[in-house]
Amino acid sequence: MAMAEAQKSNSRKYVVVYFCILGIAALQFVFAYSHASASEMLIRMLVLAAIEALLAMLYFMHLEENRGLKWFVLIFTAAAVFGMQYGWTDSFRLLSGAPWAK
Amino acid sequence: MSHAQTIPGATGVMEKPAFSVPAKKLAMWLFIIADSATFAACLVAYGFLRNATPNWPRPFHSITNVAIMTFVLVTSSLTMLFAMDAAKAGDKAKAFRWILITAGAGVLFAGLHVREWLALIDEGMTLFKNPWGTGLFGSAFFSITGLHLLHVTGGVVALVVVGARYMGGRYNADDIEITGLYWHFVDLVWMFVVPLVYLLNLAH
Asked: Complex ipTM, two decimals?
């Protein structure tokens, strides 16, 4: 009986998170038609995608149930992703050729 | 030996599993971290190219197909959770049914993806050229979405194999959960691919 109750409560939680993720995805599609600048649009899109991903990781992948694993995964993934950002200045150099190209 | 304990059923003193999760599950998490680095590298390289290329094409006139694909993939994550819950409750038939629904959604997603590729190829887009701007777009687009499609295809095969072996009694609910982790990861990657590759390249 307790198992059935827990399962029902889990299902309710999954459905709520599912609709939240769909809602955020819909917001991204709406923003895509706005006439914001490219950088503003990029920031909006990435923030929304990060929220979606966080919801999926915490509730769909059950990271919220394991504190140690949660921080292990988040820290290592963030370190790997942020470590790749070193090349951006060079892409601006290719675009504008200044000041590093000279 | 303060970190060691005796595990019931084991013959010797064993170290406690890291983060109190089974080794198989931890291995899947390590794979997910490594794979997220792969996708992040692809997306960062894509951003680099897009930023550094003045005539970057914006070929997408409609977002209907990608919206449907997103809906299908996010929904398949939900059905995977139902499969996992049913497996944990010991309801094998129900779990297998949800697994097949999830795999079916994966096949539908792959079909929609291939249809979109074919439409772009029909418009003249290849790996090295397209009618709208720099030829780099085709290689970036096909490599990122292709890598994701490969993951979806692999996930569908894994779902069917694990589901069948679960029904046959060789695998248990933990294996369903671990396969589910992979499936949610594929969904999670798509959440970044859609805005970066599709929505920021909409033709206004």
From this structure: 0.88
